[in-house]
Amino acid sequence: MKEVRLLGSDTSGFKLGALNGENNKDYKWSEVKDVEIVTDGLVITTDGQDIFINKQWSGWHKLLKEVPVGYKSFNNEFVSHYFSQMKGCEICGLKAVVKDECLNCCAEVWGEEVQKSYDSKEEYLREEQLMWFEPEENEYPDINNRPDDGFESWTGWKPVITDEDIRSYSYD
Ligand SMILES: [Zn+2]
User: Fold this and answer.
1) 58-116: per-residue pLDDT in tens?
2) Ligand 1 center–CA 107 separation, angstroms
3) pLDDT tens track for 103-124
4) S-S: 9 plus which of 28, 63, 102, 110, CB 3.0-4.6 Å?
């Protein structure tokens, strides 16, 4: 059996399916009876079944934000608070840092642990940004902090690398 993933979501519903496009299925919020946050993710109850969305899946945070208000087991205020207390990430530039780790780029916040492996914060940020913003093959560098996967832009962000840095890094 192919592994099911969250393939996308918006304010009208969400899509599940295997990564190769098999067995895709669209669900509308209008057919969802209840939504509950559990330890590992979300349980979404429709007419016939309980659907489990693992919080490790890409798109989980976006989905979390798009659950409509009004489900009896879902605490929308808790979710708003969860997002509003996230801090800005100096590497990817999104507001996605919880407990010194970024939920978007997965980098660790500069601090005691990271300091052991780097000479300076600047060096650490450069290295992490070069990896994070490394373009796919045949694509141009695009250093940005546009909102992504449910995370908002952090206005205090300034990249420490340039397109030129990325080009010379990629060709190394
Ligand atoms: Zn980040």
Assistant:
1) 899 999 999 999 999 999 999 999 999 999 999 999 999 999 999 999 999 999 999 99
2) 6
3) 999 999 999 999 999 999 999 9
4) 63
C-alpha 100/C-alpha 82 separation (Å) is 15
Distance from the CA of 106 to the center of ligand 1, in angstroms? 6
* Cα 91 to ligand 1 centre (Å): 5
- In the chain, the percentage of residues whose pLDDT exceeds 70 is 97
- Put simply, whether the predicted model's pTM sits higher than 0.70 gets the answer yes
CA distances from 16 to 5, 35, 57 (A): 6, 16, 11
- Ligand 1 centroid to 1 CA: how many Å? 33
Q: How far is the CA of 32 from the centre of ligand 1 (A)?
A: 32
Mean pLDDT across 144-162: 96
- Within 8 A by CB and 6+ apart from 69, the residues are 76
Whether the CB-CB separation of 102 and 151 falls below 8 Å is answered with no
